[in-house]
Write a structure and sequence with these properties.
Blueprint (H helix, E strand, L loop, with lengths): L1 E6 L5 H14 L6 E4 L7 E5 L4 H12 L3 E5 L8 E4 L10 H7 L4 H12 L5 H11 L6 H10 L6 H10 L3 E9 H11 L3 E5 L1 E4 L2 E6 L6 H15 L5 E5 L5 H6 L2 E5 L3 H6 L2 E3 L5 H6 L15
Parallel strand pairs: 5-6, 5-10, 6-7, 10-11, 11-12
Antiparallel strand pairs: 1-3, 1-4, 2-3, 4-12, 8-9
Helix pairs in contact: 1-2, 3-4, 4-5
Pathway: Amino-acid biosynthesis; L-serine biosynthesis; L-serine from 3-phospho-D-glycerate: step 3/3
Catalytic activity: O-phospho-D-serine + H2O = D-serine + phosphate; O-phospho-L-serine + H2O = L-serine + phosphate
Protein name: Phosphoserine phosphatase
Length: 298
Amino acid sequence: MLIARLIADMDSVETRLDAAMGALAAADMPVAMAGMHDSCGDVLQLSLPEGDRARLTGTLAEHFGECDLLVADHEIEVPRLFVSDMDSTMIGQECIDELADFADLKDRVAAITERAMRGELDFESALKERVGLLEGLEEAAIERCLSDRIRPVEGARTLVATLRSKGCRSVLVTGGFHHFADPVAEQLGFERVVGNRLGVAGGALTGLLAGPVSDASTKLATLEEERAQLGEGARVLATGDGANDIPMIEAADYGIAYRAKPKARDAANGRIESRSLTTILKLLGIPEREWIDEATPA
């Protein structure tokens, strides 16, 4: 069984749905049911008795364009664990790029970040290179960067708070830094944080990391560790945007790429192209009346 849910421009939706269903039928993946979801009226749901999940995702993306979608091989339900990347996923910025701006190095650092997130550079080497460029920057710049530059993505707090109200544990796991991730996690309502630590001595950055590197393998290991504590059958949601998020996205029941780089988007069975993270709540079938408003503390 395959279940697909998507949110798309409703103009000519019937024509595009007919074309998608025709393409799926030609691929021996006939659609048994298609209609608007009962709880979320702007979500189109398709059910297929059998088929390939990746092929279904690709076919829907081909016919509906840059839509928000989620495909699963079971009835979609509220997850019990949510593991998320931070930079460009739960917040709209790359923290190291913004911090580099205080050293007049943003363009240089951001170019390395972009290539690393696209999977063109080894993550650990790229991280150490960028951190090395910040040697000597005063530690006080971190606090200024946090207050002046770092902002949650629209819907981030509502997503975490609503999932938590449904009994879902939330973990923020990042290739970024605890200096940023800890306050972001507190602001958004995450219960655990895993990330890198910047070396600091004498009130300035040392250009080194303090402790082991938090990378793609760390993200996957964190997801698996947390899932094991929940027991068999617990559904897991993971979100991210870059190449270092791919292992955890692939391991999750609902691996959603948020406005992601191509490699991460192609690895995911869900994708969000619109701005608000509350779209995930719609795709999970949680009606808006049950959302916890962003203004309400988690």
